[in-house]
Amino acid sequence: MPVATDPRPAESASQPKRPARGSSALGGRLRNAVEGEVLFDAFSRGRYATDASIYQIDPLGVVVPKTEADVRSVLEIAAEEGLPVLPRGGGTSQCGQTVGESLVLDLSKHLTGLIDLDVGARRAVVQPGLTLDRLNRQLKPHGLWFPVDVSTSSRATLGGMTGNNSCGARSLYYGPMRDNVAAIEALLPDGTPMRFGSVDPAKLVSNEPDRIRDLTASLLNLGAREAEEIKARFPDLMRRVGGYNIDALMPPATADREINLAHLLVGSEGTLAYSNRIELKLSPLPRHKVLGVVHFPTFYEAMDNTRHIVELGPTAVELVDRTMIELGLKNPLFRDTMVRFLRGEPDALLLVEFAGDDAEKNLRRLKNLVDLMGDLGFPDAVVEATEPAFQQAIWEVRKQALNIMMSMKGSGKPISFVEDCAVRLEDLAEYTDRLTQVFEKHGTRGTWYAHASVGCLHVRPVLNMKLDEDVKTMRAIAEEAFEMVRDYKGSHSGEHGDGLVRSEFHEAMFGPRMVKSFEEVKTLVDPDWRMNPGKIVRPAKMDDRNLFRFKPGYEVEPIETGLDWSDWGGFGGAIEMCNNNGACRKFDAGVMCPSFRVTRNEQDLTRGRANTLRLAVSGQLGPEALASDEMLETLKLCVSCKGCKRECPTGVDMAKMKIEVLHQRARTRGVPLRERLVAYLPRYAPRLRHIAGLANLRNRVGLLRRLGEAWLGLAAERPLPEWRDDAYYPSETAVGPEDGRPVVLFADTFNRHFEPENARAAVKVLTAAGYRVHLPRAANQPNRPLCCGRTFLSAGLVEQARAEARRTLDALLPLVRQGLPVVGLEPSCLLTLRDEFLSLLPGEEAAALADKALLLEEFLDSEAEAGHFAPKLKPLGKSALLHGHCHQKAFGAVKPVERVLRLIPDLEVTTVESSCCGMAGSFGYQAETLDSSRAMGELALLPAMRAAPADAILVADGTSCRHQIADGAGRQARHVALILEEALDA
């Protein structure tokens, strides 16, 4: 049968020309047509120019549709203008699927609905912007879940998963996305609606529009015509997601098989039509699970024995290699979990899960795994995890594998391009061994992880995409790897799709006739080739550096920084740690990223900010972009919570980066009066305490409040902290028994001047327990208290902060040299000694102080464990509800608070699962951020505080947190020092 003629649309001078990027005329037309946001400025387009791949292409513009009608309007306008369109979800694609010179539709903000749920039929209809985790949280009360459990479930949208034919860790049991999508209500490129679902070739619906009926018939004819070629060319593997799924168009081979046009859209990467509503097949939640962590001395042995393990019927078999183990152990987020399940120094681990409703059967299967490993020569190789929380913690390590890998510092990074080739299990060990040899031949190494159960391992050789030499190496490795995959009759794409990386290799993989069929499908569904062009068909070269994030000539402009960035190779290197995987786009437990949780804007996201910074420091946003108003707007809602410092697996520290940006701006544009007033508060506080009553008039006189908002931008609705005339200024330099264990109390500005009872309570608790409390002063200006400099840092006044740090370090260092711990009350202040001091005054002295700086509860917890802190405490007869300060969470310092509170007899302690409280220093007092501050508090903290029993003890160590709780919930939270003081049994 002859091959179809070239179906691609002919080039024509009469075709509409694309407008320039950021066209004001196009932007204006779109704004008049849609309810959602239309973003055409350079900063916004730059934030959508990248995904989790190596590529960067500026879009023509961005539309964030608010309604389904918005999407249809955009498609209609784009058709009239002849513009390409690119639907986008979380923007986490690793192959460049979601970047292009197109009109980008960001579906992740508004189109997030669960439209319909039929529990009995196990069906759900969803909008494309709904994330997997949010869907599964809604399904859980019904005993159901959507089982395509990708590792990016917190931010992966169902539309993106559909477009990519995602698979997940348990595809061995549940299959990929294609097996779990029943139908798709789509919009064709011109906005025409069409249902893609089950069809009977003999009974095409006669009342459908001619175009829909003709399109359906043409697709079915193609499937019938090319059936033999499809059988000959498509790899016989579950994990094949390359090209279009035109095997779904073939005539059914058996009576129980159906033709489902939805399967053609699955994996099409948004290149055919827009998936408006997706009908999903749901599965019962397994009631019980067990997990075995199997240790192997060599990587080859792990691969060679996977096929034997699969015969036991597990739901998942996932690989963790030595590189990931080593990097994970260095990450405070994962270290404790990994120590629990690691034995010795294995070269590879396999995570083997058994799930089902029969708990005893699962345990028998786990025992069978132990027996099997013994029979295969690996006795005592299995760590058994039967507790759900332990299993979840282990799976979280695996889910974060990619980001753990990308936490490597330096220009060389594990690069995705042969990321997820798939082969048969019997070939897995040999294939991985041969590919490792290819890496070694080219002077690099690969990191391995993921889906051993289905022969689809994620492997990333370490390369520097800024170097031409490494780009050439990437090309050579790709060609050799794909040839090897073809030798094994495997698939060069087993999960992550084609995009810009692999589409070029379709002809070698499938043959020229199949590529023509792919092009024919594209032309039938998208006649003008406007949907996400350049992916799957008619692609660019995968190594075209003009499409890269690091294009030819990419260079970070030299900057005289205020902070030390040498650990990252400079400020630019720290920014480039963001790999765009989008772990910050989450809504579950943890801190990161509170501003995004409120606005759901890419701008207000750690990733969005990092992208903007990278573009600025590399000159791609024009001169002086780093100190521009647009950059200030980008960082406006960053509350410096430091959640990203701990929770971003690559360690992007946006709080520190914000300090640097504000410093650069302060140098060229100065600092506004309001920010200066906040910054210099520690300097004038010693004098203002003498006129506390006068200073507090602002809170009591409405006119002063309104004037404060008009002149300074301080929200009239917010009462400011009250100055105290009994501020904490002790006359002694040390208190407590002279022979007591020595400790230094670092009294911060806020607890000293606004809540001095906290400092006095801390001293009372320590001295009652027999400690000698030192109260140091500076040698110069002894009447001006020591200060961490945080208020100066918040305004970008780095030199003033450095002066405070130097003064404080000089005063504390003699005591630190004697081995004395330095204890503080305010998390943001004390932890500055452990964090920013190292960047302000890099060297051994600051490191010595950081090593001894502890929050009060950290100190008491460690002393209690050592048997030194055992005060006589009386029961309070109440429960305690604890809110952890963001910086406590960032430094893993919340658990010590819980343990110290539990020293009080019979006190039940519950910690609120909350993000930032929203007050964040002066953020919650600013008129322009007041609403955002309140919205952050309402995410979890304030509702929990309102719902707490009237007699519950509310605990918050952060000054800002206590004020937010008081203002927003009408409840009084107290510092742990006050709680302990109350519990002292005199």
Describe the 3D structure.
The protein is an alpha/beta fold. It has 45 helices and 28 strands. The model is unreliable at 1-7 and 10-16 (pLDDT under 50).
Gist?
The protein is an alpha/beta fold.
Helix-strand makeup class:
alpha/beta
Radius of gyration: 30 Å
Helix content: 40-55%
Return residue spans where pLDDT drops below 50 for at least 5 consecutive residues: 1-7, 10-16
Task: State the shape.
Answer: globular
What is the mean predicted local confidence, pLDDT? 93
Distance between the termini: 97 Å
Largest sheet: spatial strand order: 17-14-16-15-19-20-18
Q: How many E-type strands?
A: 28
Number of helices: 45
Strand content: 5-15%
Key terms for this structure?
986 residues; alpha/beta; seven-stranded antiparallel β-sheet; five-stranded antiparallel β-sheet; 45 helices; 28 strands
SSE inventory with pairings:
Elements: H1 24-33, E1 37-39, H2 42-47, E2 61-64, H3 68-81, E3 85-88, E4 103-106, E5 114-118, E6 123-126, H4 132-139, E7 144-145, H5 158-164, H6 171-174, E8 181-187, E9 193-196, E10 198-199, H7 210-225, H8 227-233, E11 259-260, H9 262-265, E12 274-281, E13 283-284, E14 288-296, H10 299-310, E15 316-321, H11 322-330, H12 335-341, E16 348-356, H13 359-375, E17 382-385, H14 388-399, H15 401-405, E18 413-414, H16 428-441, E19 446-451, E20 456-463, H17 468-487, H18 499-502, H19 506-510, H20 512-525, H21 571-575, H22 594-599, H23 606-617, H24 629-634, H25 643-647, H26 654-669, H27 673-679, H28 681-688, H29 692-695, H30 697-700, H31 702-712, E21 734-735, E22 741-746, H32 749-753, H33 756-768, E23 771-774, H34 790-794, H35 798-817, E24 822-824, H36 827-834, H37 836-840, H38 844-852, E25 853-855, H39 856-865, E26 879-883, H40 886-890, H41 894-901, E27 908-911, H42 930-938, H43 941-947, E28 953-956, H44 959-969, H45 976-983
Parallel strand pairs: 2-4, 3-4, 22-23, 22-24, 24-25, 26-27, 26-28
Antiparallel strand pairs: 1-2, 5-6, 6-12, 7-13, 8-9, 8-12, 10-11, 14-16, 14-17, 15-16, 15-19, 18-20, 19-20, 21-23
Helix pairs in contact: 7-20, 10-16, 11-12, 16-17, 33-45, 35-38, 39-41, 43-44
